[in-house]
């Protein structure tokens, strides 16, 4: 199947999810059925090697797929986007042998990934027992962990500054989820806390280490710009879903305002409603064009030989992604708010469910402060400086 076919399949999945998104959001059950749908559709292994049954697609396509799924359900779009990033974790930091083993395992078993890697918490501690590493600690966020098959762990070896990534089976006694995710939006992402207790990993599975030594590449730092663009794409999908849902409501239910001195027979004839939808659609088309452009840029380097990436190129891509993210946060929240003005008072009823889009976008857009993204862009525009790689840049 080509890229267009995968995007169309994602669109079909989104339509299924959209049909009962509001009801599932209220129920708040772990999204096992939804992840099962993603697995059955083949979207989970979109980036996996074809020789193991994967889609063999690029990140350029993956970003568009995330966007489409989020149009139907923002929570599931986020889960899929995080899964793609964690499934790519081995390729980001591991050795070639480790990459092959992880990709074969994950693709052939249709595995879904979660991650316990929240940098705002204290690092997990790692005790080196010689041939084995033992992880312990707690993370306050572990998106998708509850419904995952594999979990990405990251910690620091005791008495050192050595960070070690490892991929482990989720179903084990040492990984204990608190089931305490109870937020305004993105309610089905299972982003609650997790306790890691005596999870053992062979040194041979420590990602990127050979003889207990890690050889860094600039490519290792692509995890942050890659996932920041994941964010931007499911934000866009949520905003697109809001506009589509509102437009359907206006066509089917909204009534023209009869007291303005310019009476119309239908709400769809009201000039201010037409102007409002035109403004919001124009913003989202512009955001889509920017996201597609930067998606193509980072996809090119994600699929290129890892040794080729320079610090300058990495920084330029990160700045462009920062700009795209800042733009869609502003425009997406504008869309999710103004759709109420275009649909009317009755559209605020809980049964209509227009609030889900604002709640979802507002919740996750607080992940890291957008003003810092604008500052990164400003320093680049004014001084030609690229951001230093951190857990958030």
UniProtKB/TrEMBL annotation:
SUPFAM superfamilies: Acyl-CoA dehydrogenase C-terminal domain-like, Acyl-CoA dehydrogenase NM domain-like. GO terms for molecular function: 3-methylbutanoyl-CoA dehydrogenase activity; flavin adenine dinucleotide binding; monooxygenase activity. Residues 229-367 form the Acyl-CoA dehydrogenase C-terminal domain. Keywords: Flavoprotein, Monooxygenase, Oxidoreductase. InterPro entries: Acyl-CoA_DH_C, Acyl-CoA_Oxase/DH_mid-dom_sf, AcylCo_DH-like_C, AcylCoA_DH/ox_N, AcylCoA_DH/ox_N_sf, AcylCoA_DH/oxidase_NM_dom_sf. Residues 11-98 form the Acyl-CoA dehydrogenase/oxidase N-terminal domain. GO terms for biological process: L-leucine catabolic process. It holds the Pfam family Acyl-CoA_dh_N. It comes from the Bacteria. This is Monooxygenase. It comes from Schumannella soli. The lineage of its organism: Bacteria, Bacillati, Actinomycetota, Actinomycetes, Micrococcales.
């Amino acid at each position: 199947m080509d890229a267009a076919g995968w995007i169309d399949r994602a669109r079909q999945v989104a339509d299924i999810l959209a049909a009962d998104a509001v009801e599932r959001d209220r129920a708040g059950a772990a999204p096992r059925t939804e992840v099962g749908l993603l697995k059955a559709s083949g979207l989970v292994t979109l980036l996996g090697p074809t020789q193991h049954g994967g889609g063999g697609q690029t990140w350029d396509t993956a970003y568009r797929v995330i966007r489409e799924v989020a149009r139907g359900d923002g929570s599931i779009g986020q889960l899929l986007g995080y899964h793609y990033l964690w499934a790519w974790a081995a390729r980001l930091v591991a050795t070639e042998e480790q990459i092959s083993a992880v990709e074969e395992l994950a693709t052939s078993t249709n595995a879904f990934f979660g991650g316990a890697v929240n940098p705002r918490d204290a690092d997990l501690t790692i005790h080196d027992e010689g041939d084995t590493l033992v992880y312990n600690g707690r993370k306050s966020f572990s998106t998708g962990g509850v419904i995952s098959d594999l979990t990405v762990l990251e910690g620091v070896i005791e008495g050192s500054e050595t960070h070690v990534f490892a991929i482990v089976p989720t179903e084990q006694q040492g990984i204990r989820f608190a089931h305490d995710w109870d937020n305004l939006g993105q309610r089905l992402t299972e982003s609650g806390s997790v306790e890691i207790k005596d999870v053992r990993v062979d040194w041979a599975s420590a990602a990127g280490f050979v003889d207990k030594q890690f050889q860094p590449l600039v490519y290792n730092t692509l995890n942050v710009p890659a996932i920041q663009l994941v964010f931007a794409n499911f934000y866009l999908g949520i905003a697109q879903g809001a506009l589509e849902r509102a437009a359907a409501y206006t066509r089917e239910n909204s009534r023209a305002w009869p007291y303005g001195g310019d009476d119309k027979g239908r709400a769809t004839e009201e000039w201010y409603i037409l102007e409002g939808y035109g403004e919001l659609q124009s913003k989202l088309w512009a955001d889509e064009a920017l996201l597609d452009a930067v998606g193509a840029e980072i996809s090119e380097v994600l699929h290129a030989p890892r040794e080729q990436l320079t610090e300058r190129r990495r920084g330029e891509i990160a700045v462009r992604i920062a700009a795209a993210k800042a733009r869609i946060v502003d425009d997406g929240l504008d869309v999710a708010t103004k759709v109420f003005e275009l649909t009317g008072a009755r559209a605020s009823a809980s049964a209509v469910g227009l609030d889900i889009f604002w709640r979802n976008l507002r919740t996750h857009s607080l992940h890291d402060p957008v003003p810092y993204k604008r500052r990164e862009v400003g320093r680049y525009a004014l001084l030609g400086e690229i951001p230093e790689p951190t857990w958030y840049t």
